Amino acid sequence: MDSRLDILVVHGFAIREGRGKWACCYEIRLAILGGPLLYRGELHGRSFATEDAAIFAAVEIGEREASLHLDTARAMIVALTRVTDHNSNEIT
User: Which of 4, 14, 57, 92 has the smallest CB count inside 10 Å?
Assistant: First the structure.
């Protein structure tokens, strides 16, 4: 994965739609524990010989899509940091 995308995690999976046809699905999340879902996508009716091939394609598609969501991810990390910092200051 592109090093710019280190703040994101792409999870790819495939769902059988018929003989040799797969839906390539992916989720993009922030790369933190329990990271919020940023985007979920699907491409239907793709022809692949195996489920593994469909999953590989889903991850590639998801990584391309993730590059479009970098600004959103960075803004969410800044917001989460501010909330966390604000909460830790209230405790002390």
Answer: 92
